[in-house]
Design a protein that fits this description.
Protein name: Alkene reductase
Bound molecules: flavin mononucleotide
CATH class: Alpha Beta
CATH topology: TIM Barrel
Helix content: 25-40%
Number of strands: 14
Largest sheet: 8 strands, parallel, barrel
InterPro entries: Aldolase_TIM (IPR013785), OxRdtase_FMN_N (IPR001155), Oye-like (IPR045247)
Shape: globular
Radius of gyration: 19 Å
Amino acid sequence: MKLLTPTTIGDLQLKNRMVMAAMTRSRAPEDGLVQEMTATYYAQRSSAGLILSEATNISKDAIGSPFTPGLYTSGQVEAWKKVTETVHDEGGLIFAQLWHTGRVGHSVDRSNKLPLAPSAIAIEGQRHFTSEGMKDFETPREMSLEDIRQTILDYRQAALYAIEAGFDGVELHGANGYLPNQFLADSSNHRKDQYGGSVENRCRFMLEALETICEAIGSSKVGVKLSPLGTNNGIQLEDPVGTFSYLIEKINGLDLAFIELARRSPDADLLPRYPIENDVALFGDLVKTSLIANANYDRESGEKELIKGKADAISYARLFLANPDLPKRFELDADLNEADPKTMYGGTEKGYIDYPLLNQKVEV
Ligand SMILES: Cc1cc2nc3c(=O)[nH]c(=O)nc-3n(C[C@H](O)[C@H](O)[C@H](O)COP(=O)(O)O)c2cc1C
């Protein structure tokens, strides 16, 4: 199977083309320190060609959800070192996913400070998970030019910390309606300055963040996740195809290790002006570096996607969550464990490090 053949991403040799996609598991205490069990969780999944870590806050200002880890204090760097060492000991590779949530947050988990965003526009018609239960989204505070400059520096510092913590590289979280995605979208960015308006201006924030990260740690250690047709967290673009075509061409110029493209959920309503084709079919040929295709793939459809030739690797989220030995199971075409939605976010070791390996008896 092509999925089980090696490939190169950046300067790294991957033992297979099965990437573990980033998954927030909400098990970090308030100080954003990953726990001992997090090292076990990732080490169990180190047969993936590459692991993308759960989204990790680049600063205190970046926090949008409780119980999520950070990469902005020396304590957090030390805690992540245990994770990266354990993964490397098991022969795995791991990138840190760098996260700024922008308007997808709530002041109750931000020391009573409003979330920051390109414009003061709240997400409507949805509620947000907070440490005090579900709450309506608040109207965020519009970022000043100084906030933008500081945030880009925070990305840079978090990337440096990631390397210090032993990560093999970083992935900028540019998908799913978080801050860089908010800058791209007409529904969340009404700015009149150089970060709003034209396609070029709306792409500026993400490109500046990527450039700065590349300058700090080297472009072969940097990837980005995009969800061009995704509408999560109130994201809508007037011209998604034009905007993402421009963005991907500019990203090509940065010589990153990879672009991960998350396909639109088949359950999401198709917005009027949005194309019916999926993101990989639409944008795959534009990507000049390694392309990691994501979302809703299984063994057969992942293999088919690789054979089509646009994608170099497939990232799996829920399948890796429930099947630590996923490559082995694909090799043997074995049965798969089902992910339990109740333990996806938050909690203990249950539903985190106790998914059984093939032929492993579950203790009851
Ligand atoms: C529990 C859970 C947490 C997730 N957290 C993140 C995250 O932190 N960062 C991210 O980019 N995507 C996140 N996602 C989305 C996945 O990376 C992936 O794009 C999505 O689940 C589709 O892939 P799949 O069909 O293989 O599950 C999460 C998904 C799940 C199920």
